[in-house]
Amino acid sequence: MIKSLFLVIALSSSAISIAQNGIVIHVDGQTTDLSGATYNVVAPSNTSFDIPLDVENHTGAPRDWRVTRLRIDAPAGWTDALCWGHATDPFGGTCYSSAQMNTNPWTTPGAQAVLFTINDGEYGKLKASVDPADGIYGSGHYRYYISTNGISYSDSIDVVVDYLASVKPIKEEASVTIYPNPSTEYVTIQLAGMDQSTLKMMDAVGNVLMKEVIHGNKKINVSDFNNGIYFLLFETANGKTITKKLVVRH
């Protein structure tokens, strides 16, 4: 345990002294070199999302690179994964799940089956994936090292992911649907964006015909109602009132 802790601390502090060595790392589709730098991104939601990175070889020689992921800090419950492959690989390379990346640090395997050569002037695709846990807001800090052996690191990029309460999916706005309208016998009330509502039904002159709490969907028999216009008032949990006009026609 102590040995592992020392290894993580050593790796965390080593990025400052890593040489660039002809390696360029940038976000796919962009040109800014982020080698040895930090890339900040806001998680779009609590679901897994990808950070696509290109690792270019300008060393003057072919390289069989491996990627080491160091999880410097992440909230409990967050998981991460990655894919690593040649830019020309139509399948995006070899992907590794969070279950496979079960050590920290973790390095892509050195087996011949997953190694590939990046010639000078070519690049590899590194797709880092982060999956924030629902309701667990905070910041995750990950570092991705580039090396030929998983030990002697040539370059790195830090990725900091912020998952903020403000990006939590917004609840559906409260609304009410009534049908059929006009109605002859039964009218169906359908609530959306709220679990329940207090319904008050009035006739055209303001007489209250019924008042009750409804949940989800409700069917009302209007076969005994006189022909005319009726008003249905729905009170939401936050005090807002939604008014619907119902026409009864026999």
Strand content bin: over 45%
Separation, N- and C-terminal Cα atoms:
80 Å
Structure class: mainly beta
For the record, the count of structural domains works out to: 2
Low-confidence stretches: 1-19
* The CATH C-level class name of the largest domain: Mainly Beta
- The oligomeric status of these chains comes to single chain
**Rg:** 29 Å
* Biggest beta sheet summary: 5 strands, antiparallel
Q: Helical amount among residues, as a percent range? A: under 10%
Instruction: Examine the coordinates and then state which fold CATH places here, giving the name of the CATH topology of the largest domain.
Output: Immunoglobulin-like
Strand order of the largest sheet: 1-3-8-5-6
Please state the second-level CATH architecture of the largest domain: Sandwich
| Overall pLDDT level | 87
The number of helical runs is: 1
Topology:
Elements (H helix, E strand, L loop, with lengths): L1 H13 L8 E5 L10 E5 L6 E9 L8 E8 L5 E8 L7 E3 L9 E2 L15 E9 L6 E10 L5 E11 L11 E5 L6 E7 L3 E8 L4 E8 L1 E5 L6 E8 L5 E8 L2
Parallel strand pairs: 2-10
Antiparallel strand pairs: 1-3, 3-8, 4-7, 4-9, 5-6, 5-8, 9-10, 11-12, 12-15, 13-14, 13-16, 16-17
Tags for this model:
Immunoglobulin-like, 1 helix, disordered N terminus, single chain, 5-stranded mixed sheet, 250 residues, 5-stranded antiparallel sheet, mainly beta, 2 domains
Task: Provide structural commentary.
The protein is mainly beta. The protein has 2 domains: 166 residues, Sandwich (Immunoglobulin-like); 74 residues, Immunoglobulin-like (Sandwich). It is built from 1 helix and 17 strands. The strands form 4 sheets. It has a 5-stranded antiparallel sheet with strand order 1-3-8-5-6, with no helix packed on it. The radius of gyration is 29 Å and the shape is rod-shaped. 22% of the residues are buried.
